[in-house]
Predict the structure.
Amino acid sequence: MSAPRSAAPLSLLATAIAEVAAHDPRRIALTDGRIERTYADLARVLDVEAGEASWGSILVGDSVGDAERILGEAARGASLLMLDGRTTAEEASRAEAIFIDADEPDRPRSIGLCSSGSSGLPKVVELDWVGLLDNARTFARAAGYESGDVIWCTTPLAHLYCFGAAVLGGLLSGATVLLSDGLLGRSRFSELALVAHPDFLLSVPSLFRRYLELVEEDPGLVEGWRLRSCIAAGEPVPAELIGAWQAQTGIRLLAHFGLTEGGHVTLAGDGDDVGVGRPLPGVEVEVGDDGEIRVRRPSPGRPYRVIGAGIDPDGWCMTGDLGHIDEEGNLHIVGRADDRINVAGKKVDPAEVEHALLACEGVADAAVAGIEGDGEQQVAAFVQMEPQAAVPDGRIREQLAARLSPFKLPRHFIRVEQVPRTLTGKVRRGELIAAFADQGTGVKPTEADPATSTLGQRLARAPEAERDSLVLELVRAHAAAVVLGSESPAEIGPEQAFRDLGFDSLAAVELGNRLAAVTGLALSSTLAFDHPTPADLARYLRARAEGSKELLARPTRRASSEEPIAIVGMSCRYPGGASSPEELWQLLAEERDAIGSFPTDRGWDLQRLFHPDPDNPGTSYAKEGGFLYDAAEFDAEFFGISPREALAMDPQQR
């Protein structure tokens, strides 16, 4: 077969396909299990003269014909915006206007893909063919594709993971690319897994979870597999899913991190706690001072660009993801910058809470979002339970409290039949929040009934045998409302410690306010700490309401009014190395200079931090300051913080 005539942008792909076609023309290049295209077929499609550059769009499904058509049009010189076949006419029109009418001189021949990105607004990303093919080949080599392999992908063709990692990466490797829908029934999944003999399975975590259920129902599937690698992308891969998949199939589930704007970035290797792995060759990854991940891919090609947005002069792409890089160079993603929930000034990453929820008894899937409540953001957990699971919200909350700091614990638990997700497995948080608001799920503090304005009056009308349970149910209901978002007393055990439920000072104050409103009693804000279980608190409230001195009596040590206040110790830390009041006094007495250079352990980019212009955003016009040089060193375990969370925290917060 003669050398392909395709223009330079596609020459790498055209040459690779022509080489396979020359010695094995009948090898299958693309298939969906029924329709096939050989390498000889694709070689003919690409062996054309490129015409004038043009820009257009194409609606694609997950079919072999669509993939073939994209390659053929690109070989003829067309730059195409790939739109998912489920795109509405209005969405298509808006995206086409951005891609086709982009005003930029010397635009390279490219592929356009739609992405919501970190802003959640529609964006069109332009990917030049040279950089796209080079990045796809790099991924294929890192994944271990070999000539003759079968690469099975169950994500949409109009997404970079499928088109780049599977289709282009597979064809550049001489492999067969198997395309299919993701939501497969048992028979179709079995057919493709056993008859097509895939070596690689590429999908998203939510679909891998579905496939895991199919394998658990029919363990015999695994016996006939030829799979040697499974790769998940599109969202963080929970550790419990990785463990469950390997236990059931014997195959490790690897995590891949990539994004439309930045290409294929990392791929996890073997080993425990490796996150999404190390950067691919030719890809640079950095984590900024604020924890946001940024990526860069030097030549060949140019950085992918979001049409209408500026390009970083140094080629960096801000991902909108938060994370850290461990000592082995593995990237760990902890959440999204735009998804973080502001709880009383503290930031909560939904991904962290979701991972903790998935480790709880009976939880099949979960999503976390921030909702407005009582003038502030609150954490809400949307939980999909396993069939037949009968685990109360209080039990889930208790398990979470053992893993998360109190401010991260959900204030609302909402049971859902299914967590809504995009085609790539990302949670549709907007739908959950809207449904939450429409259902009026938020629980507001209950005001006292004028007819029974005090607890004492209600107790006086109740039979003696029912009074303890009346007060206990009242406490449990309002405790459930504070930490679970529902007024179901059954969710809170009578002897369940408030601290085990994750009560912090804010929750304690809210509980005190609620109980004060319904009992007519003046109650302390430390109520939940002074009486650590619902049963203890109920006994106290009954005693207060009935004026029982016997129940209220408690041995205490009262200080004499004449006893002086004794200061038994003081501690402080100040710039200049002062770690005690005596050292601070010595520093002042000797008039020593406590100003010094910037510390090197805060994660700051010191080379870029200084700028002589005071108005330049994100920089400092001073080169020195007063710092606590060991401020980032602290005992994480003492504060109940895991080593991983400590590394992810801002050093200033530590």
About this structure: The chain has 22 helices and 25 strands. Residues 117-121, 441-453, 550-562 have pLDDT under 50 and may be disordered.
